[in-house]
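Wait, can you check?
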Amino acid sequence: DLLRLKGIVLEPEKPLTADKLDAKIRDIYDDARDILSGIYVVYGLTILDDQLLIVTVRDYRNLFQISDLPWVVSEFKPTSIIAGRYISGPEEGIINTDFAINFYEYGTPMSVHLRVGDTISFQAGYREINVRIVGITGSDLSSLSERIDMDVQNVLFVHWDTFERIASDVEGISGPIESSSRIYVLRVIFIVKGSILTVLGGDIFAYRNSLKDTINEYYDNAYPLRLSLLEEISPGEFQNTLLIFLLSMVFQIVVAGIYAVLLIKLHRKDIATLRALGWDSRHIKIFAIGAFISTLLIGFVIGIIAGGIYAIVVSKLSLDIIPFIVLFVTNLLIPLLIGMKYTSAAALSIPPSEAFRRE
């Protein structure tokens, strides 16, 4: 989880407009820039008589990582989407589950509910902006509306370009949108530098603590921005997770080793016979490795299917695709390479005369 591992989040205790943001965080930016990989600001704009809160996220002073953008706003990150998908560009949006716009038509109250595939249009004169709904989030969005002291029931998350067009073309906001007094700041997210290698060295946790110290140093100036409580990943928690991962890796290697030893033992006479018939080393290797890979893959696929059914259906866990792919590759590739190395060497060590030995 990006925020739990590398993030520090500030939220306003009372409504804060975008024109005041720079004065609140520029000192933090200046002092902590060297340890930051990104600063992201979550902006909000209310329209339709405060029925709708439009939300977007944008980097601060061009300090960002493109791969982090989908994950910094926890309410709309890809794993929070219960229907559809995350936005991939402008004119796409994500809404909350009970999204409904109320209006009067010929004096009659009406309500429009949106779902994935529908389009919501914003018009002002000849200008029209269409936003297609591509996802629905299952997250609780009350924290966002609390930042502006309004009970807004409908939230639409969009790309920055779409947000900017709605603000300027539909709402008539002039000048830079990110410094307008009509735009709300809902959240400021700091992401410290670091990778898996720096986690092992403890640098991420040191950067995170250093950033907290910097924020506390400018505590009064940053008001009404205050630290938001996050369930942070502690060094101990990460070490436990890493230990479990390493143990699972060792287990996979041991299982692959057992597969390889059993395969050579069971096919020893077959391999010797093939060598006696004139098969060269390359074809013997292909035979042994092919038998090993097929055996390992069958067991691995069965395990993945069984584990996936248990995780999704029984435990109802969300599937975080990036860690899943990493674990899938490492847990398969490393044992596979080790097993292939052993089977090819062991197969070539079997002499052709073994085919004529009586058991």
About this structure: The radius of gyration is 28 Å.
